[in-house]
Task: structure prediction
Amino acid sequence: MRWILFLTSMAFGASSALSPALAAQGNVDRGQRVFGACAACHSLEPDRGMTGPSLAQLWNRKAGSLSSFPRYSSALKSSGIVWNDKTLDDWLKDPQHVVPGNAMTFEGIKNDQQRTDLLAFLQHATQPGHAAAQMGAMGGMGGMTGGGVPNLKKPDPEARVQAITYCGDTYRVTTGDGKMHAFWERNLRLKTDSSGDGPEKGSPALLGAGMMGDRADVIFAAPGEISGFIKQECESR
Ligand code: HEC
Result:
């Protein structure tokens, strides 16, 4: 019995010194943790673009070819790459070396084992029907913000914006919990999200207030709403 355990642990030990050629044998669970470095920019759900394109059904896809992603660089589109174990390993090691001038602001993963594990996870999670893997990866991020996008259709009261006033250099944002947040105008970012995760028309959401304190985002359903929503008005206190 002890002998068998010994043999098993020998085999296990050896597997941690994999060469990149054995990418398929990386550790999926460890790879899922490595994916935490990608999840802020990439969804595994088909056609759900974020900062970067969806990675669903990545294997054997031509680089820069998703019609659901309108922001590919011409460098990536004209690279002629088809994604597989080898091309992904090269890309993830040093993206700017493989496709100079591409738009992915990511320095790469230099650790061979981490890339092997990541590829094992991706190979599994990018197959049709594996979108749920994204949620698991998010959980592994230890509560970091910036991963994924919260759905803003039904925001919590503290995120539901009821009114915004503008006076001098200050925006005052009143939220559904009755609180008023004051921001220096250079610290409040006004954004839009027209996707299914975005807010309802005329019901913008406040994100990020309270965490860092001085900066936050208000996200509207469409750009046309923004100036009409904000009332030029000074407090008379
Ligand atoms: C800061 C955001 C960001 C991070 C972090 C990031 N990416 Fe990207 N990624 C992008 C963008 C933007 C593009 C499109 C690049 C272009 O068009 O030049 C891209 C492109 C890609 C592509 C090509 C997809 C296609 O459709 O051709 C792959 C594969 C990829 N990323 C994988 C990853 C993986 C895996 C990680 C984590 C190790 C990662 N990326 C981290 C933003 C990011």
Q: What stands out?
A: The chain is about 25% helix and 15% strand. Helices lie at 2-15, 28-34, 74-77, 85-93, 95-98, 112-125, 133-139, 226-229.
